[in-house]
């Protein structure tokens, strides 16, 4: 059975019942159909004085085409925890609609460990991304309109930092010249579109405490610079309050359920390179009030996702993770050990052990944040006993345990052992979380710290213009912000072909950007795309409705 | 009290109760919050064999800055009909989000005759326009992607007819050059964005019978032409089925309520110039099965809106309207009679009678479709008894009745007299609807028929290129389609300053476009904007959330 067939066969409970189990009354739950709901702001406010549950991060080795199953493991672990009697909820990101029509298909877990309704979650869901797109583009329209009617703020047309967004893979919109066609259309200038998940509004929504904080942060967005190089903010053209109006439902967490009817918060979805790649702070904090264990994930591998989760999200939101799970697969580690994709079906213990250094590095890195670590081996049918034994032996040499998990095939029942051990680890009180650099470190030193301690770079370089820009950000008062490094997800280095555990490489910072509303400085290394394209044969060509009105082609 | 204050004070019933009153079970109603819902396709299918209620059109004189209150009267009339014991429902369009942030504020009726929840309806509502935007832009992305990967269909880059859309007033996007930036971004070409309500996908959604018909029509969209000038359709690049997936909820009618808790279908919102300007056929047909009287409206004045309602929507959907209400105000007629806006507060019977020729012309025109007509005088506090008496005398000279309506101030209680008379008219069986031209008339002759019989033009002209284009559309097999004339809404002529009832003017057709999926030929006269701009002081600057989280600045 395909993921979508399993999802469609799910025996979903009415979303009101899922809410009830968390103590949410029907009036506090705003339904979207019968299986999705948003949780009202007043209810969230009422939780403030309750104690927090324990926060568990699921992260992974560097992604390979072989697949790791990070969301699948996150969802499975919650089903496993509930099976062993622990009250646990899922907190994951919303998938972006655009990429579903490219190569991706869908993203809501897989096999017997999914959140449902899978089709809705992958398409319009509760409209959050559409609201973010609207708010972002309202600001863009107001910027060009401001210039059109006299440019009172004296915005430098060459230094406008705000582009537009669309939730679609559309390479033709990456670079454009707009406002053509003469006087009545404005002043022509170069600009372009990013995909919605790359919007600073997305990052803001995911880091804001509440609606008031969201509005404040929207006002702080730097939209560009004046001729005298001073910054112009969204509030200077009075855009932030109307943007907040457009986001008043989007900031409310979405409640859905796993295949085993456990509560899942699916909310927010910032990019994990130029943004921090975690679900919303609002959802995580609400979940911590409503459950004893909250299992969340961070984007890409632990070098990008976990680092940003710790240094940006946890630091800024005051979250203290109690345990971390690193997901690995035998197949992916064999690829890291040099096995070609087509050969992954063949047993190769030596390659596995060679590739396991990638896992080892992540284990060490995550541990350096003061969070106890366990490894989840996401089982594939082609894995052999010898390979699994070798992997367990490797991790035990690192002083961490690796647990074989069969949640993809068996659901929560296949991951009870991991659930028991994660619960014990979270309950142990061993965690002593701390970010990897202090707030008051200079910006470039923060970049160096992450690059050297996490990526294991030998040197970090940047052109004079980039260093000057960082100095300018510090002069503007943004020196205390954390850094958000955009780097390829496929390697610890900036070269996507360097698998395993490379070290001593050079990390070159080619550009830095200010996300003043979100509250971080983006440092771009290598070739980072903020607007994907569609492949030669896009998934859209085969996505369709069948005779019963069900969606085919999402997987 | 402002409209938004009245709307906020409304005692709304849970939407399930509104549905129940129409015989819709909870399982067939998909809630969006507690006061909005979509009606499921299976339920709609089950209604097929029920008899139809009576369809009543609300249209108006040409709009002036003085305001007419067409939606207000549509809503008020339904409240009035229910008060006198008739089972009636509202069918109106969804407002577009973009213009709310410009000058418009909001559009869901006014005073004591509104549909609620007003803020939601004016903002994201149930996400229909976002879904239409996504489907439209997916096709656009697939077109540029098709070209990028080899252009198997041999699309002529100069003859691509499909632009992109956004639901925002953004003049900088009207004309652009996209796909700049080198090889990896595609082939640069001139293009641009329209506002979502101008999308052919919007028109298709509003004219489709059901989801299968929608998909079929999406496939028929002509996206451009090959080098050999043959048309390329959306289905040729396999985009239509994925577009239908994105629209599967959007095509379901939205149920909300009036301030007096009567059911209202608010669904679809095509432009009333380059599209047909009516709510969806799906909603109208569902409403006719569920109620005895369905009151609907058409965009702009009767010259544009009612003509398109009759010649496009009713013709194609097989609807047979039973009565028509033409809304007029003393103020607007005085403006037509030459009174300046600042002077409208002063009694001026002579100007009223001079301006009433505008109303007279519309009365005659609407009657020519075989539909009995009544005039609703939408009362303003500044109207004098003498003015109202003069207006009634004028219409009685035309053989039609004019009824003073106080629904804005009093709700349904203020419009009972009109309700009684409209009900009697609809029940009388006097209507004998027929479109104004037959399907098999040549396209240019159809344009001439509307221009001469409705606009009262003396001559209709077009350049050779336009006539050639029409001949080409006929050769392609589209000669049987109705025409959709885009003309200024402010005058019967193409000159927006010619008020009253001008005749003998020239109508010049400067461009024609094929909407093969929607099923009409657009003929553009004068200067029609498909992407509005924001004003110097956009409403967005004052739209905000107050301390209680309520939206301020929509009105």
TrEMBL record, chains A, B:
ATP binds at residues 64-71. Belongs to the formate--tetrahydrofolate ligase family. SUPFAM superfamilies: P-loop containing nucleoside triphosphate hydrolases. The keyword Nucleotide-binding applies. Its EC number is 6.3.4.3. Pathway: One-carbon metabolism; tetrahydrofolate interconversion. Transmembrane segments: none annotated. One of its GO terms (molecular function) is formate-tetrahydrofolate ligase activity. It catalyses: (6S)-5,6,7,8-tetrahydrofolate + formate + ATP = (6R)-10-formyltetrahydrofolate + ADP + phosphate. The keyword Protein biosynthesis does not apply. One of its GO terms (biological process) is tetrahydrofolate interconversion. This is Formate--tetrahydrofolate ligase. The gene is fhs. Keywords: ATP-binding, Ligase, Nucleotide-binding, One-carbon metabolism. Gene3D superfamilies: Domain 2, N(10)-formyltetrahydrofolate synthetase, Formyltetrahydrofolate synthetase, domain 3, P-loop containing nucleotide triphosphate hydrolases. InterPro entries: Formate_THF_ligase, Formate_THF_ligase_CS, P-loop_NTPase.
């Amino acid at each position: 059975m395909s993921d979508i067939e399993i999802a469609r066969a799910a025996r979903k409970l009415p979303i009101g019942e899922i809410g009830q189990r968390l103590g949410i009354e029907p009036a506090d739950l705003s339904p979207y159909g019968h299986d999705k709901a948003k949780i009202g702001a007043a209810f969230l406010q009422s939780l403030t004085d309750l104690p927090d549950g324990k926060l568990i991060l699921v992260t992974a080795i560097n992604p390979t085409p072989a697949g790791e199953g990070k969301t699948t493991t996150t969802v499975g672990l919650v089903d496993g925890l509930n099976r062993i009697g622990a009250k646990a909820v899922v907190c994951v990101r919303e998938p972006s609609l655009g990429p579903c029509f490219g190569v991706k298909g869908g993203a809501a877990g897989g096999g017997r460990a999914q959140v449902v309704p899978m089709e809705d979650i992958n398409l319009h869901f509760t409209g959050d991304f559409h609201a973010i797109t609207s708010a972002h583009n309202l600001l863009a329209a107001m910027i060009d309109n401001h210039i059109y009617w006299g440019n009172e703020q004296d915005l430098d047309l060459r230094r406008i930092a705000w582009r537009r967004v669309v939730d679609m893979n559309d390479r033709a919109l990456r670079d454009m010249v707009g406002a053509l066609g003469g006087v009545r259309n404005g002043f022509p200038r170069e600009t372009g579109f990013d995909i919605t998940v790359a919007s600073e509004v997305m990052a803001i929504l995911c880091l804001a405490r509440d609606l008031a904080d969201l509005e404040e942060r929207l006002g702080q967005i730097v939209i560009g610079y004046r001729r005298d190089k001073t910054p112009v903010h969204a509030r200077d053209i009075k855009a932030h309050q109307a943007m907040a109006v457009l986001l008043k439902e989007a900031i409310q967490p979405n409640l859905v359920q796993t295949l085993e009817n456990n509560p899942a918060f699916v909310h927010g979805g910032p990019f994990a390179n130029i943004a921090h790649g975690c679900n919303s702070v609002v959802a995580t904090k609400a979940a911590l009030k409503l459950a004893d264990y909250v299992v969340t994930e961070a984007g890409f591998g632990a070098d990008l996702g976990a680092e940003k989760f710790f240094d940006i999200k946890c630091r800024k939101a005051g979250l203290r993770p109690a345990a971390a799970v690193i997901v690995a697969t035998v197949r992916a580690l064999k690829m890291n050990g040099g096995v070609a994709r087509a050969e992954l079906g063949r047993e190769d213990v030596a390659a596995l052990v060679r590739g396991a250094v990638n896992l080892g590095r992540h284990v060490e890195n995550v541990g350096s944040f003061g969070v106890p670590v366990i490894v989840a081996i996401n089982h594939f049918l082609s894995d052999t006993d010898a390979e699994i034994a070798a992997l367990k032996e490797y991790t035990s040499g690192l002083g961490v345990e690796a647990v074989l998990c069969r949640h993809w095939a068996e659901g929560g029942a296949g991951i009870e052992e991991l659930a028991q051990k994660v619960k014990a680890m979270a309950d142990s009180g061993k965690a002593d979380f701390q970010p990897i650099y202090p707030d008051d470190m200079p910006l470039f030193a923060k970049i160096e710290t992450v690059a050297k301690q996490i990526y294991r770079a030998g040197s970090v370089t940047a052109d004079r213009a980039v260093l000057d820009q960082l100095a300018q950000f510090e002069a503007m008062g943004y020196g205390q912000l954390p850094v958000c490094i955009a780097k390829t997800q496929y390697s610890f280095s900036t070269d996507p072909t360097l698998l395993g555990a490379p070290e001593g490489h050079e990390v070159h910072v080619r550009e830095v950007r200010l996300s003043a509303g979100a509250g971080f400085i983006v440092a771009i290394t290598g070739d980072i795309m903020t607007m994907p394209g569609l492949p030669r044969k896009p998934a859209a060509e085969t996505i369709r409705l069948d005779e019963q009105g069900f969606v085919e082609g999402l997987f």
